[in-house]
Amino acid sequence: MNTPCKKVLFYKNYNARIRYSAEDGFLVGHIMGVRDIVGFHGRSAREIEAAFHEAVDDYLDLCARLGKPPQKPRHRVPVSARAFATAQAAAARKGVDVERWVSATLRRAAESR
Q1: What H or E segment, with its residue span, contains residue 71?
Q2: H helix or E strand, kind and range, residue 99
Q3: Which end of the chain lies in a sparser environment, N or C, as judged by fewer CB atoms within 10 Å?
Q4: What integer pLDDT is reported at residue 81 of this predicted model?
Q5: What residues does 87 pair with on adjacent strands?
Q6: Residues of the chain with pLDDT under 50
């Protein structure tokens, strides 16, 4: 059984979801927001973070050797057209684009939890 952890790792504009596998006692991670499957594992927080950095570096290196551009993380949050229009209006009032406004708003909401 895999148990979700609360920690999300960030490195070179990539992030990863970490789960604990009780079956084998490992922390298991996957890079989020890309279609390519990039996984890694470790037994401790320090190991999983190092493995994540190595996985990202290896992924970027492999893409370069293959002459393939690495996928950029895509993070889509489905919202209604009305909610998106409201966000656009709020962003315009702040003088920023909607992506920057949504990012800042989500970050503040997550940090306040």
Answers
A1: none
A2: helix 98-111
A3: C
A4: 84
A5: none
A6: none
